[in-house]
Design goal:
Elements (H helix, E strand, L loop, with lengths): L1 E6 L9 E5 L8 E11 L1 H8 L8 E2 L3 E9 L11 E5 L8 E5 L4 E2 L6 H21 L7 E4 L5 H12 L3 E6 L2 H9 L4 E4 L5 H8 L5 E6 L6 H6 L1 E9 L13 H5 L4 E3 L3 H4 L3 H16 L7 E6 L3 H9 L6 E5 L2
Parallel strand pairs: 9-10, 9-12, 10-11, 12-13, 13-14, 15-16
Antiparallel strand pairs: 1-2, 1-4, 3-5, 3-7, 3-16, 5-6, 6-8
Bound molecules: NADPH dihydro-nicotinamide-adenine-dinucleotide phosphate.
InterPro entries: ADH-like_C, ADH-like_N, ER, GroES-like_sf, NAD(P)-bd_dom_sf, QOR-like, Quin_OxRdtase/zeta-crystal_CS
Protein name: Quinone oxidoreductase
Pfam families: ADH_N, ADH_zinc_N
Length: about 325
């Protein structure tokens, strides 16, 4: 048996229950993992509240790190005791679970379990956003919303290391100062400043070639208006609510714009892509170019409080849950 955070209906943080669940032995191609740290991500909230549908009852969470505790038939790439992490398979908020061996990445010695759980989902996301959805070049000036969040602080540092100039946005002056300490050149407090006006000022009226927008409903329109002609809006989240249906003619009016709505699952679907993206992430972290800020830790049983804090915009950087 393993203790887990499970929900039987969609709703607020109160639907999360700390329950004992059966784990069982790994089947062919699977391993069992004794989890040491679990990443908390905004997608966990969308799944809990039903914005993204999952089969019920569900164990919450999409990312964790730990040790292999049993190996199923046919698994040759891993052995008991190996240090591993994963993203993208719901059911992570628990002490022990089964996982397909081909979805795991092995952790370098220099990466701790809590660090891995704090960065794998967020860091792989930053990798595809800034190296694949739009390949950022030295000197590019980019707009990155929610720059003091988990994804945001990794993005600020990684973009700076590429020689890009980052305009961040965040919901308080303290969060803006944090984004600037992590490499943003400017940060707009979007509770008090007008995003489009500030971006136009900062770019001499030109606009930016790419906007990374995970806030969704509240920023989508402003994001389009910050782009230069042929610019790309990468809409990758809905922290303020889903983006309403888009009238395509707005893209013509604002200068032959592009919009993409990517997801990490597409970019990591092939094992070779998962491995190469993880290798690049581990390299920027172990070299010290990107530091992982674990600013909030909770015991696994307090996952509901972690959700309350993330939803209420009380967190910065990454949050992890620790099984006891
Ligand atoms: P964050 O730590 O960035 O937390 C979300 C932040 O969004 C908040 O701290 C807050 O920062 C900002 N925000 C703005 N408006 C609201 C609102 N109304 N309610 C709550 N928060 C708001 O979370 P993560 O790092 O886990 O994820 C960042 C975003 O990236 C999420 O939207 C997530 O869904 C998305 N994502 C998408 C992926 C993909 O592949 N498509 C993969 C990974 C993440 P502030 O107070 O500064 O505004």
């Amino acid at each position: 048996m393993s203790m887990a955070i499970r929900f039987h209906e969609f709703g607020g943080p109160e639907v999360l229950r700390y329950e004992a669940v059966e784990v069982g032995e790994p089947g062919p191609g699977e391993v069992r993992i004794r989890q040491r740290a679990i990443g908390v991500n905004f997608v966990d909230i969308y799944q809990r509240n039903g914005l993204y549908q999952v089969a019920l009852p569900a164990i919450a969470g999409n990312e964790a790190a730990g040790e292999v505790s049993a190996v199923g038939a046919g698994v040759t790439s891993l052995k008991v005791g190996d240090r591993v992490a994963y993203v993208g398979k719901v059911g992570a908020y628990c002490e022990e679970r089964l996982m397909p061996a081909d979805r795991l990445v092995q952790l370098p010695e220099a990466i701790g379990f809590d660090q891995a759980a704090a960065m794998l989902l967020k860091g792989l996301t930053v990798q595809y956003l800034i190296r694949q959805s739009y390949r950022v070049e030295p000197g590019d000036i980019v707009l990155f919303h929610a720059a003091a969040g988990g994804v945001g602080l990794i993005a600020c540092q990684w973009l700076k290391s590429l020689g890009a100039r980052v305009i961040g946005t965040a919901g308080s002056d303290e969060k803006c100062a944090l984004a600037i300490r992590h490499g943003a050149e400017y940060c707009i407090n979007y509770r008090t400043e007008n995003i489009v006006e500030r971006v136009k000022e900062l770019t001499g009226g030109a606009g930016v070639p790419v906007v990374y927008d995970s806030v969704g409903k509240e920023t989508f329109d402003a994001s389009l208006r910050c782009l230069r002609p042929y610019g790309l809006l990468v809409s990758f989240g809905n922290a303020s609510g889903p983006v309403p249906p888009l009238d395509l003619s707005i893209l013509a009016q604002l200068g032959s714009l592009y919009v993409t709505r990517p997801t990490l699952n597409t970019y990591t679907a092939k094992r070779a892509d998962l491995e190469s993206m993880a290798a690049e992430l581990f390299q920027v972290v172990t070299s010290g170019m990107v530091k992982i800020d674990i600013n909030h830790r909770y015991p696994l049983k307090d996952a509901a409080q972690a959700h309350r804090d993330l939803e209420a915009r009380r967190t910065t950087g990454s949050t992890v849950l620790i099984p006891e």
